[in-house]
Amino acid sequence: MTDILAELRQLRAGDLPTHGGHTLAYVYDSGLSEVDEIAAAAHALASSANGLDPTAFPSLLRLENDLVGRAAGLLGGSAGTVGTVTSGGTESCLLAVLAARDARPGITAPSIVLPDTAHAAFHKAAHLFGLRKIVVPVDAETFRAVPDAMAAAIDESTVLVVASAPSYAHGVVDPIPEIAAAAPARGVRMHVDACIGGWVLPYFAKLGADVSPFDFRVPGVTSMSVDLHKYAYCAKGVSVLLHANAELRRTHYFASAAWPGYTMLNPTLQSTRSGGPLAAAWAVVNHLGEDGYLRLAEVTREAVTRIRAGVENQPGLRILGDPDSTLIAFTKTGTADDGFDLFTVADEMKVRGWYVQPQFAHGGSPLNLHLTITAANHGSETEFLADLTASVTAAREAGPTSVDPAVAAFVAALDPETLTADQFAGLLTAAGLVGDAGLPERMAPINALLATAPEPLRERLLLEFLGALYTP
Ligand SMILES: *Cc1c(COP(=O)(O)O)cnc(C)c1O
């Protein structure tokens, strides 16, 4: 047994670090070791229990109601507010869309209205559940949704309007009250995606930050999502979808008695649900409590302020929009400093032990690097910024990554619809994405090439890459 665990430990050593604030995407670290210990112990206590039947495992029912109640309290819910614990933010968003669609069975071709900064989870929902997407450009300077444009996009087929608090890519909160004002008048639901901000913005507000209204206190908001595996610092696999009342929730519940087995009753997309993540989240949320989260928000806010100021003072870089929360996206300033590229900056940061996340240009948003800042970043801001300066210098010395114009032209002309599996395999090899040596250390040349590909082609290329990765 120790051999097996040693092997697992060795495999895990090849991953990005999940602790210590060096990975500025994907992971959320409170910096408190006892939080991990209590989560692991609680997870082990309940991972064999099955949320499929709350009457068989009433402990899980109790834990879920506790967490939903806690989330509702944090987000301005009322006595009627109900919710569901899901496996993550994407599942919460999917269920919000499903509930909205199925509440309007009379609409034959339902649609959702999204700002173009909405999380990709809503694109997935539209894809899975067959809804039309009406994607509305955000303001070019602030990256916030434009209420008038959102209102104008609503039509008779619209079942849901979405806004973010904040958006993942730029960390800005959409003008929720103005957007929500238009929805109910048209009989349309309004979802606030607070997956990443819902457990930290309320504490920022308590610390005196100027947080614009974004929760159930805003009239017209019918549902909200908040991920506990983000700023509630819980182990992965837990999010909460809240509905302003039980009637709004009913249409994502599913029952089937149409088979010889147990009557399947599912509040979520899953049926069997591990009690592990739920119990771990319950333990962490109760262990940290209001004071714990307030302290974590305080140090996180300090880290954000310092890192933001450091990036702003860095010649050649500029922050996109005016971030409201814990996320920062920065790009290059205009022309004078064009002698480097951001993909190389990301690679240079990796060499120095930091993971920052490249974001491709989309709509009015230029190519940029994203930082998710958590409590664990507090204390190493100076080191982070010094390494960022060194990385920009190194990227300048390296010069911009050039894509062979002939290759770029070839890629741009490809039609993902007509490419065969063999052609994709050849392309992936040519792009350096698959090969005998595993993933290359430096991603800049690959990212630069991917950046030239139109979005549908980039999606397909990366899916083929994923398929190649997931081959035993
Ligand atoms: C993270 C995130 C999601 C999706 O959450 P997952 O837990 O990764 O499925 C949705 N919306 C926003 C704004 C997010 O930040």
TrEMBL record:
Gene3D superfamilies: Aspartate Aminotransferase, domain 1, Type I PLP-dependent aspartate aminotransferase-like (Major domain). Keywords: Aminotransferase, Antibiotic biosynthesis, Lyase, Pyridoxal phosphate, Transferase. InterPro entries: GrpII_AminoAcid_Decarb, PyrdxlP-dep_de-COase, PyrdxlP-dep_Trfase, PyrdxlP-dep_Trfase_major, PyrdxlP-dep_Trfase_small. The modification N6-(pyridoxal phosphate)lysine is found at K230. SUPFAM superfamilies: PLP-dependent transferases (SSF53383). It comes from the Bacteria. This is Aminotransferase class V-fold PLP-dependent enzyme. It comes from Amycolatopsis carbonis.
